[in-house]
Design a protein that fits this description.
Blueprint lengths: L1 E7 L3 H16 L2 E3 L8 E6 L4 H12 L2 H6 L4 E6 H6 L2 H5 L5 E3 L7 H6 L8 E2 L20 E5 L1 E2 L10 H5 L3 E2 L2 H13 L4 E5 L7 E2 L2 E2 H9 L6 E5 L8 H9 L6 E3 L7 H6 L6 H14 L4 E8 L6 H14 L3 E6 L17 H25 L4 E9 L7 E4 L5 E4 L10 E10 L2 E6 L2
Parallel strand pairs: 1-2, 1-3, 3-4, 4-5, 5-6, 7-10, 10-13, 14-15, 15-16, 19-21
Antiparallel strand pairs: 8-9, 11-12, 17-18, 17-20, 18-19, 20-21
Bound molecules: S-adenosyl-L-homocysteine, iron/sulfur cluster and FE3-S4 cluster.
Length: 434
């Protein structure tokens, strides 16, 4: 039996791609193993969005050196965004790497590893505008919930962001191909779907746009919860808001990146939305449902960000009352527009602003979690609690984690009802209703 080990960094789109690669390898008779020491093949799917993401992946790959020494037949593939970004330089830096494969060439990985690829090429980075992985479904990761990529690449050109250079322009997956994959997973018992794309709500094919796709998926038997990430504020149309609020299978939760609360910074970031437009989306969602879950991404210390700009970000964070936020320190990425500018803040100043924002958001997260107390919610059970295995963990429709003591036999994938009655630290606790 040929054994492969797959390590994934970066966003959920990389998770999906890794699952797609896994399925291809398994179709060729390979089996997955948890540790690189047991593997014949190692595949590392990488991210380049911030400097630190690359450093982490490089450090991990470096650790394979002694494994390769012990087993010279071991083959190592580096794929994903860092493969595309750093290219053949990686062969020099990481001598144990056999193949470097960019995001449009994943179908070659099994042949490369199994030695059946027709040429001796070792590096595949060219952009392929036709490559959309039609019919290439992903390996199911767990038996109740799965990611499904519906859009690849990105047409926006946010001035700080390297993603469009690595993933190329937007490509929308054919609607029928998406629906076929949803049907396939629903037939296997999956009830929750997370649709993926860098600007997922820009999805449009000749016969279907994003709100229509949500509706079509909601009509597939067995599907109970539909989520998606990341929507772009620019593409929140009235039709979309209507589906989000009125289709009972579409969850009341969204991750809507704000990036900055300052209009001057948003403009400089080329975000294609201002603060008012952003807030109007939140108002529309929360005026219908005050519990509508909203999370965001924010960059602290962008080039040229003044104290006043940053205070706008604090004010916007307060006003938006995000349920949670990913808060990043600006990291210049070579090749992007803003990396050409000289940074105006020291690392220390960026870090200090980041600390202030984290502190504010922590207090808001706690407040939003406390707001849930007293409610009775449907929970999709995910797993046993890592702290206490007699307890279990699941999520509400609005994406709140809830810990509860099961009554009778409860399995991951079950839907149960809990009365939310306590909070410990950040964590909401519920009492399961029999
Ligand atoms: N497509 C998504 C975001 C993908 S990248 C969107 O636009 O909504 C995920 C997040 O990383 C971004 O939202 C942004 O907050 C952050 N990010 C991207 N480039 C960055 C950089 N150069 N420095 C710091 N954070 C960055
Ligand atoms: Fe990057 Fe902007 Fe595209 Fe998101 S929308 S991937 S931040 S360029
Ligand atoms: Fe990273 Fe590429 Fe995703 S840069 S965030 S893995 S699209």
């Amino acid at each position: 039996m040929i054994r492969y080990h797959l390590a994934t960094y970066g966003c959920q789109m990389n998770e999906y791609d890794s699952a797609m690669i896994a399925r291809k390898l398994e179709a060729r008779g390979c089996i997955s193993v948890d540790t690189p020491e047991e593997a014949d093949f190692i595949i590392v799917n990488t991210c380049s969005v911030r400097e630190k993401a690359e450093e982490t992946a490089i450090a991990r790959i470096s650790k394979f050196k002694p494994i390769k020494k012990k087993n010279p037949d071991l083959k190592v593939v580096v794929c994903g965004c860092m493969a595309k970004n750093r290219g053949k330089e990686l062969f020099k830096k990481l001598k144990m790497v056999n193949f470097i494969v960019g995001p449009d060439h994943y179908e070659k990985i099994p042949d490369l590893l199994l030695g059946t690829y027709p040429t001796k090429e070792r590096i595949f980075l060219e952009e392929d505008l036709e490559q959309n992985y039609v019919g290439d479904f992903a390996k199911i990761q767990n038996h109740f919930s799965t990611f499904i990529t519906i859009q690849r690449g990105c047409n926006k050109r946010c001035s700080y962001c390297i993603v469009p250079y690595l993933r190329g322009p937007e490509k929308y997956r054919e609607t029928q191909d998406v629906l076929d994959e949803v049907k396939m997973v629903a037939d296997k018992g999956i009830t929750e779907i997370m649709l993926l794309g860098q600007t997922v709500n820009a999805y449009k094919t000749k016969d279907c746009d994003f709100p229509q796709l949500l509706t079509k998926i909601s009509e597939i038997g067995g599907i109970r919860r539909i989520r998606f990430t990341s929507p772009h504020p620019r593409h929140y149309t009235n039709e979309l808001i209507d589906v989000l609020l009125n289709n009972s299978k579409v969850c009341h939760y969204a991750h809507i990146p704000l990036q900055s609360g300052s209009d001057a910074m948003l403009k400089k970031m080329r975000r294609q939305h201002n603060l008012e437009q952003y807030m109007s989306i939140i108002e529309q969602l929360r005026s219908k449902d005050p519990y509508y879950g909203i999370s965001t991404d924010i960059i602290c210390g962008f080039v040229g960000e003044t104290e006043e700009d940053f205070e706008w970000t604090l004010k916007a964070t307060e006003q938006a009352q995000f349920d949670s936020a990913f808060m990043f320190i600006y990291s210049p990425r070579q090749g992007t527009e803003s990396a050409k500018e000289v940074e105006t803040l020291t690392e220390q100043e960026k870090l200090e602003r980041h600390g202030r924002l984290v502190e504010l958001q922590n207090s808001i997260t706690l407040k939003r979690n406390q707001m849930m107390l007293g409610r009775t919610e449907e929970i999709l059970v995910e797993r046993a609690s890592s702290k206490d295995i007699s307890e279990m963990v699941g999520k509400t429709d609005n994406f709140k984690k809830v810990v509860f003591k099961p009554q009778g036999i409860v399995r991951p994938g079950d839907y149960i009802t809990c009365k939310l009655n306590d909070i410990r630290g950040w964590t909401i606790r519920g009492e399961m209703e029999k």
